[in-house]
Amino acid sequence: MTWLRTWWRETPTLVRNWTTVLLPTGVILFVLGLIGDQKGFWEDRSFLTNLVSSLTALMFGVPLALHFLGRLGAAQETAAATRDWRRWAARAASDLEAEVITVLSCTSVQAATAAVAHAQSATSAVIQKLNIAPEQVPPEAVIDAFCDTAATYLEAFAKSSGVIRQRWQTVERLVSQGHELEQSWISAKDLAGMNQKLDVLSKLDDPRFRPDQLRRRLARLRSRQQQPQPSGLATLAQNPRAHVNDLRRCAGDSAFGLKVLAELLGALPQPPS
Questions:
Q1: pTM score
Q2: How would DSSP label each residue in 165-200?
């Protein structure tokens, strides 16, 4: 009986009103028809008999048709809405993925993952050199590899975070629409995790640590040198310890940012199954 009450509550008000009028009327006509048969009232009244029997059938048929066609139409609308939702969700997931890998100048998630792994190796090389010789700046080749990958990727991602966030908001909106259609796609935990990753990556944009700034400072301070100096950022004399500390902080932030970026690449939403 519970499903029947639920079904009745979900029926449109207009259909319920017509049903409460037509069905009792049909029952009354049916009973009157039976009594008329017993009394012989319908003899020699073929036209009236046909008229009343047709009207009685109509009283039962119209409510049934309204309910059946209404349910059928609602089912078709739901199916169409679900198909549209799946198509939009697949498009939103594809757009987000394309935006992320474009920022990293890659053509696929696999290529982007490999590029981030390479950047992590370059960052680890900087940190390793700093750990071995805390007062010295790593060789220029090590710094260049770091700037060309880790620092460049994180700077590009931070600058493009607004567009990526818009793509992600489209995904979030479609997740909410999916709930209304009883379609599950991305869990609340995964949504929160992705938002956290995007927040972290959008803030990793320190002007002092941008690749062009590092190289510009290197060239400017090199021109001030009175005597030959070792290659690399060690030429940032005057206060080398401050520069080493800046580089250590930059490498540490980059290592964390690349870890988050790798996790984000692994958590990019796929089209709903």
A1: 0.70
A2: HHHHHHHHHHHHHHHHTT---S-HHHHHHHHHHHHH
